Amino acid sequence: MAAKKSTRNKLTEDESNASRRDFLKKSGLFTALALAPPSLVMASEKKWDEKIAEYLETVPLSLEVNGVKQNLNVEPRTTLLDLLREQLHLTGTKKGCDHGQCGACTVHVNGTRILSCLTLASMQQNAQVTTIEGLSKGKKLHPMQEAFIKNDGFQCGYCTPGQIMSGIACIKEGHANSREEIREYMSGNICRCGAYHNIVDAITEVKEGGMLS
Amino acid sequence: MKNFQIIKALSSGSAVSSIAKENSAMFIAGGTNLVDLMKKNVVAPDKLVDITALDLKKIEFLTAKTSIGALAKNSQVAEDKAIIEKHPLLAMALAAGASQQIRHMATVGGNMLQRTRCSYFYNTDMPCNKRVPKSGCGAIGGSNRMHAIFGASDSCIAVHPSDMCVALAALDATVLVEGPKGKREIKFTEFHRLPGNTPEKDNTLQNKELITSVEIPNNNFTKNVHYLKVRDRSSYAFALISVAAALDIQNNTINDVRLAMGGVAHKPWRLTEAEEFLKGKTISETIFRQAADLAMKGARGYGDNDFKLTLGPNAIVEALTIASSK
Ligand SMILES: Cc1cc2nc3c(=O)[nH]c(=O)nc-3n(C[C@H](O)[C@H](O)[C@H](O)COP(=O)(O)OP(=O)(O)OC[C@H]3O[C@@H](n4cnc5c(N)ncnc54)[C@H](O)[C@@H]3O)c2cc1C
Ligand code: SF4
Ligand code: FES
Ligand code: FES
């Protein structure tokens, strides 16, 4: 009984969503919204009351991303992943599952690897964030990036930024002393192409070469 | 995700008072469970109180006990040298949970309060008494491979998914909490509860109390311990069944023993009867098997999870065997 009831409610909700979407599409508003940067939606064109509403719904956030200081306004619900990708246009960090289950969104915060999809940006005041874009020095790739290329550590490449961020941390944490240990401590990074063997090769090579001091 | 207000608490007192008055306000620590649940609209607080700045991250070794702050990270505890030496069972259980990235974010308090992984609980289109009281239970008669074999009710057959908590239950830990009415202590084995006809309550916290620390009394379980976790893949998966086994052995005789299981009940499941049986006995596979049979008394399957009735006793014997041969 209960199951049926809730399914029926859901259907009506979906139907009404669908018609709302239709309306938005027709009115052209949908495209406008999709193109606008999420937080400061063309602030200059906004009316006063809208500005106040937005001000009340966002919080100021200062943090450093790849060595660059950023002063932003974010909605409390914005994840660090969405902040990086949508507001800062750093799309190297990938959204795989958005629920902590794949590791594609792995970045370093204050030197520690974490999942940016389960991290609220509003809780990262003054944090130092490093993403895949922050690894190379000018045109010179990071040793882990080099090693992934050399060892064919990827196929489609979607999981690769997360794997590389995690691999660097894995060595720095002291968890890269054997292939088994690397596999265990890299288990939070799923690769649908199954490049695991070569990923372990790449991490082993960087570790044994002492390329991370 | 619904938008919400967020504030940062600078003291335990202000954290407690800032959520006490507001119905839908919640604490947030690592966020690894709460943010996920909010994305799926399973919970939708109007206000979050960020407790990560509170001074509750320390691990301290006192004369008779070890004290672990509620905001200590799962990886911090799992890799603490003195914890590995004094409470290796806890370190093993923590290292078996989630992934290193998640362990770097997850806190001890948050781990205790993580919600069940029952898929009906997570799906707001489905009936679930834990999420919406009196809406029904999708898992009874539904898909229930991960579910309970002990202590379940007609309202809910979910399990508590934590690994850490299984070790803490075995080690006779105590939970220290602070609420609007002051501070109190709760025995770890009484912290989580059975579902009865109020499965919406996972634990015995009242009035949104803040967990401040967990204490483990000193013990002799430093060598012959094992945390066995059986799961669908060898890492980064929740337990189908887990067993925490700690033995204090002298000349092949069991001086003292602790046994607890995960993935089998709405709370970490202490096997007290099996423990009593094993005390004073000489180690052998036969007595481990007898203890396991005792432990399984009263177990029942719900269909998909019937395999746990066989896996359970085998896992107990295996964990005891590995622990005793270390
Ligand atoms: C993909 C994935 C796999 C996982 N695998 C495992 C596993 O194998 N084994 C395992 O044990 N766990 C596993 N977990 C769960 C993980 O351990 C928990 O999500 C984590 O421990 C929660 O801690 P947190 O600090 O992030 O809590 P949060 O998400 O911040 O909070 C969780 C709850 O606790 C409350 N809370 C937090 N701290 C306090 C406090 N001090 N006092 C009062 N209330 C508080 C919050 O209000 C919230 O309701 C997994 C999680 C994910 C996402
Ligand atoms: S087992 Fe519990 S959590 Fe799962 S659907 Fe039933 S009531 Fe909900
Ligand atoms: S996108 Fe964060 S873990 Fe999958
Ligand atoms: S390279 Fe395709 S997912 Fe890993």
UniProtKB/TrEMBL annotation, chain A:
Tagged with keyword Membrane: no
Family matches, as InterPro entries: 2Fe-2S-bd, 2Fe-2S-bd_dom_sf, 2Fe-2S_ferredoxin-like_sf, 2Fe-2S_ferredoxin-type, 2Fe2S_fd_BS, Aldehyde_Oxdr_Iron-Sulfur, Beta-grasp_dom_sf, TAT_signal
Domain spans labelled 2Fe-2S ferredoxin-type: 59-135
Pfam family, one: Fer2_2
Keywords for the protein's UniProt record, in alphabetical order: Iron, Metal-binding, Oxidoreductase
PROSITE patterns: 2FE2S_FER_1, 2FE2S_FER_2, TAT
Gene3D superfamilies (UniProt xref): 3.10.20.30, [2Fe-2S]-binding domain
Database matches in SUPFAM superfamilies: 2Fe-2S ferredoxin-like, CO dehydrogenase ISP C-domain like
Keyword Hydrolase in record: no
PANTHER family: OXIDOREDUCTASE WITH IRON-SULFUR SUBUNIT, OXIDOREDUCTASE, IRON-SULPHUR BINDING SUBUNIT-RELATED-RELATED
Name this protein carries in UniProt: 2Fe-2S ferredoxin
Native organism: Flavobacterium frigidimaris
TrEMBL record, chain B:
SUPFAM superfamilies: CO dehydrogenase flavoprotein C-terminal domain-like, FAD-binding/transporter-associated domain-like
Highest taxon above the source species: Bacteria
Keywords carried by this UniProt record: FAD, Flavoprotein
Keyword Flavoprotein part of the UniProt annotation: yes
Descriptive protein name: FAD-binding molybdopterin dehydrogenase
Gene3D superfamilies hit by this protein: 3.30.465.10, CO dehydrogenase flavoprotein, C-terminal domain (3.30.390.50), Uridine Diphospho-n-acetylenolpyruvylglucosamine Reductase, domain 2 (3.30.43.10)
Source organism per UniProt: Flavobacterium frigidimaris
Residues covered by the FAD-binding PCMH-type domain: 1-221
